[in-house]
Design brief:
- The protein is elongated.
- It is mainly α.
- About 70% of the residues lie in helices and about 0% in strands.
- The protein has two domains: about 55 residues; about 30 residues.
């Protein structure tokens, strides 16, 4: 995805393709629903296909959403990095002190 142009993720493109494919079956639904539903459905498809991207680009909604959604992920990533560092220091400390058993002078010889 380039910085200047917004592109939909793959799963959004797949859902839109499914909606468009279902649009071919919409005339058959006239048996159960009035034709206004079909007109509204086709208007929704046109809006999603042609009108939503310019609105997202003009209002810069993608940048706002990245800013709002990235803060919690950054906090979690920083916390996980801090916990990894603490665990690494703890493991290094444990390894360095594992074989440092100083025996007491009060113990009998060859203890």
């Amino acid at each position: 995805m380039s910085r200047d142009r917004f592109e939909y993720p793959f799963y959004i493109q797949a859902v839109y393709s499914g909606i468009c494919t279902a649009g071919f079956l919409a005339p058959f639904s006239l048996i159960w629903y009035p034709y206004q539903w079909m007109v509204a459905y086709y208007c929704l498809i046109l809006f999603l296909g042609l009108g939503l991207r310019p609105i997202i680009e003009r209002l810069r909604l993608i940048e706002i959403s990245h800013h709002l959604l990235s803060k919690p992920f950054e906090k979690r990533r920083a916390r996980e990095a801090m916990l990894r560092e603490v665990k690494a220091r703890h493991d290094a400390h444990a390894i360095s002190h594992r074989h440092r058993h100083k025996l007491s002078d009060e113990l009998p010889p060859n203890w």
